[in-house]
Amino acid sequence: MARIGGGRWLLLAPALLVFLQMSSSAFEVKDHSGKVCIIANLSAAFSVEYPTKIHPQVARFKLPQNASVLANQSTCGATNAGDLVLAIGFGVGHVLKMNFTSDSKQYRVAALTFLYNLSDAALFPNSTGGTKETSHKTDIVANMDTRYRCFSDNQMNMLNVTITFSNVTLQAHPVNNTLSVNETVCKADLVHSTTAVTTTSQAPTTSQAPTSPPQKPTTGKYNVTGTNGTCVLAYMGLQLNITYSRKDGKIGLDVLNFDPVNTTFSGNCDNSSAFLNLTFEKTSLMFHFLLNTSTDKFFLQGVILNTTLPSEAKEPKFQAINNSLNALRATVGNSYKCNAEEKLWVTDHVFVNLFDVQVQVFKIDGNKFGAVEECQLDEENMVIPIIVGGALAGLVLIVLIAYLIGRKRSHAGYQTI
User: Fold this and answer.
1) Confidence band (pLDDT; 50, 70, 90) for 294?
2) How far apart are CA 167 and CA 333, in angstroms?
3) Is the dihedral of CA 253, 259, 260, 264 positive or negative?
4) Is there a contact between 100 and 141 (Cβ–Cβ < 8 Å)?
């Protein structure tokens, strides 16, 4: 089924490059027993004003891919309710630190601290040297037993330093060393998800929708082969939904169902990372799976989309990236399965609908799916038929008992002559 709109645009190789450059790694803090007390996945951009012998300059850089948790500065606290610290080190002595506090209901990032080394000539050319430290209170707060999620940019302005966070997913005191399926969503994402998105300063006046609801996409079968055989096996129906700004200031909606017959697929994988690339009608969609070695589970961390919107769009060339997902999670050796429709938010105006999905990554025997781990949506959907069936069975039993009692009383009313 073709989309409602114009042509398509393919930029697969640059998309892969951008994905690798912008993707963020998961950071974990563990206690002495190996229990995880903090999980964080985020992107951060820095703007630092620093002195030189001539005049102040501004350095701009991003949190690099090789940033890592500093074990000697990170802590899970004395008790489960104690203060937690995540310290991320990168470059020549730079440290980004988050101090968590919590109570019985909520956890929060009480303070954000950035220690930077001006002697790092790669980031601060012509600097007079020395180290600086600055801190800031944050509005990052979430309910206990939920993961905090904020795809929107969140800017922290400190003395001479501005840090912009994006694509943030984190949790303090996670259960079973893994992120919760329940979310506490930041205010910025809530606003975006309830209003039309536009790239212009003028508010949209009306929305454009398809003339009829799109049909359910056909389930496709895709796989990726690595050095040790099949490393990605995926069955799923795919539907893209994109809202965009039109040239006339209104909002357009573009819907596309992937046709498996005309979809090409490829990918690659290693011991802890796997890519599945899908191309349909000159639209590229890339899935990035990761292995969490501490929990022995695989999950979908990232999605990148490249396409061309209809000619009425103000910006026809379109790209959307999200590297902070935690979806399609299952134990290595098992498969993730969900019959219910699932929605993957790539950005606040782009989402991918998945239908009848079954996925297995890394450990696949005989090109066949392993034991099934059902999604929460399917488990919840099963509860309703069970409740209804139980209620009907109870009703039948009540009617039967009432009938038997009534019949017994009716016989008792006759006397033998």
Assistant:
1) confident
2) 29
3) negative
4) no
CA nearest neighbour of 167 among 350, 295, 299, 40: 40
Say which DSSP state 93 is in: T
Those residues with Cβ within 8 angstroms of residue 65's Cβ, 6 or more apart along the chain or in another chain: 20, 21, 23, 24, 25
Which residue in the block uniquely carries the two structure tokens 């002595």? 93
The residues, any chain, with a CB within 8 Å of residue 213's CB and separated by 6 or more, are none
Nearest to 112 by CA among 99, 127, 131, 94: 99
Residue 364's Cβ-count burial label (10 Å; 0-12, 13-18, 19+) is: buried
- Residue 125 DSSP SS3: coil
For 41-96, the pLDDT digits (tens) are 998 999 898 998 888 888 999 999 889 999 999 999 865 445 899 999 999 999 99
- DSSP reduced 3-state for 328: strand
- Which residues, other chains included, contact 228 with Cβ-Cβ below 8 Å and sequence gap of 6+? none
Q: Identify the pLDDT of residue 414.
A: 53
Q: Give the helix/strand (H/E) hosting 304.
A: strand 297-308
333: left (phi over 0), alpha (psi -120 to 50) or beta: left
Q: State the alpha helices, DSSP H only, in 148-211.
A: 187-194
**Position 368, amino acid:** K
pLDDT at residue 16 above 80? Answer: no
The pLDDT score that the predictor gives to residue 386 is: 62
- Are the CB atoms for 373 and 254 separated by under 8 Å? no
pLDDT band at 354 (very low <50, low <70, confident <90, very high): very high
Q: CB-based contacts of 365: which residues, under 8 Å, 6+ apart?
A: none
- Residue among 348, 291, 278 at smallest CA distance from 25: 291
For residue 408, pLDDT beyond 50: yes
